[in-house]
Each structure stands twice: as structure tokens, then as C-alpha cells.
Amino acid sequence: MCAIKNNIDNEEKKDKEHNEPLENTKEIGAINIPKPEESIQILPIIGQIEGHMVLPPQTKATKYEHMIPQLLGIEMDSRVEGVLIVLNTVGGDVEAGLAIAEMIQSLSKPTVSIVIGGGHSIGVPLATAANYSFISPTATMIIHPIRMNGIVVGAPQTFEYFNKMQDRILDFITRTSDISRETLKHLMLQSDDLLNDLGTILIGKQAVDYGIIKEVGGISNAIGKLKSLIEENKKKDCKKRK
């Protein structure tokens, strides 16, 4: 009887595991893809970065209140040896995006980012926050000054606040990439590249040529690089123990 019960339990477990991806798709629009590399955590940053204001339900968004505990979990989980950040974002809330970027940059685990589709606006520091960055050949990055929607108080303090926030972004990108502050500022303030805005569009290799991104490549390149960084990290740990 026990053997029969165990067989039934095993079959039910298999059915549950088989149906779990389907249930997740129905409930939250996500699917659990079996990971051959359990040591690698995939961190997708998709759509618009949602900050303190809730975006409309039809907007694809990455919520910073979801990302922060996830990043804390990655840092504390000894099973996670490296993180692959997959970016396709139009930008969004500056402070929320910068907070996520700072947390990625401060992880003790090796990190690799890859821009697919686009890494615009606050997506730029999110891409450079990783230890190593890739961009797919057709992906774009838009670099422009910060903007604010809604009512803005017309006072010198408002201008000073914008300047300080812009400086924070410039400092972060130049600290985490190979582009100079002067070049980055020049790209932000160009007036002949975007139709209704200041800034510059960089496509694939252009982002590498300017030193914002390390290399042009795809998913296999990014995973390969992350695995090599994980191995390097293990060797450093071994030397420290000796």
C-alpha cells in the first residue's frame, strides 16, 4: 500500500511541476523556465521603471519595490554565484532606476548586463552598473538630460535640484564605464539627433565605441562571460582562504 501511495504522490508531484508554468502564465503572465545553471540568477529589467507613482495597468513596467528585495535575496543567497541582467527598457523614474543601479553595482557576486532592444535614459546606468556589459548589434541607447512631467515650480531651487540629479547620473555612468564626463555631457546635450528633445541615439557598436558598453554580443556571449567571471571569483576566494 505504501509503495502504491508513494507512486501516486510522485505522479501528482510531476503533474503539479508540469502544470506550474501554465498556472504562472495564467496568474502573473510569467513562466518558470527550467534553469540548467541554478547558480546563475536572471534579472530582467523590462519596459518602464516604475517609481513612487503607479503606472497605468496597460504599461509594461519594472517595479523598484519588487527589484530591491530581489537584489537583497540574490546577495544573501549562497546558491547564487552570478547575475545576468537583461535590459529592454525605455527608462522611467530616475531615483528608482538609480537606486536599482546602485544596488546592482554593490553586489558582491559577478554581474553581466546585456541590452536587447533598448536601454534608454535611466537604462544607461542600469546597463553600466554590471561588472561587464554587452549590447546586441541592433539595440539602441538614448542618452538625454533628465526631464520632469507635470507642474514645475519656476524657482532657482528647482533648477539647482535638476542639476544635482543630473550630476548624480553623470557621476554614476562615468564611474561604472569607460566614457569621459565631457563626452557623456556632450552626447546628452546634442540638439541635432532627436526630433523633439536633446540627446543622442547610439546603436549597437556606437555605444561600445564611446566606452559606455564593453562589447557587442548576444545571450551566449553574456552567459559565457558571466561563467568566466564566476570562475575568477571562485579562484580569488580560494586564494583568500589559503
Description:
With 242 residues, this protein is an alpha/beta fold. The chain has one domain (40-49, 60-144, 154-236): 2-enoyl-CoA Hydratase, Chain A, domain 1. The chain has eight helices and eight strands, in the order H-E-E-H-E-H-E-H-E-E-H-H-E-H-E-H. It has a six-stranded parallel sheet, with helices on both faces. The longest helix is centred in the N-terminal third of the chain and has 27 residues, at 2-28. The chain is globular.
Keywords:
242 residues; alpha/beta; 2-enoyl-CoA Hydratase, Chain A, domain 1; 48% helix; 20% strand; globular; disordered N terminus
What is the 3D shape?
globular
Number of distinct beta strands: 8
Number of helices: 8
Strand-and-helix sequence, N→C? HEEHEHEHEEHHEHEH
Estimate the mean pLDDT confidence: 83
CA distance, first residue to last residue: 54 Å
| Named CATH architecture | Alpha-Beta Complex
CATH superfamily: 2-enoyl-CoA Hydratase, Chain A, domain 1
Query: Measured on Cα atoms, how large is the radius of gyration?
Result: 21 Å
Spatial order of strands in the largest sheet: 2-1-3-4-5-8
CATH structural fold name: 2-enoyl-CoA Hydratase, Chain A, domain 1
Low-confidence stretches: 1-6, 21-34
Proportion of strand residues: 15-25%
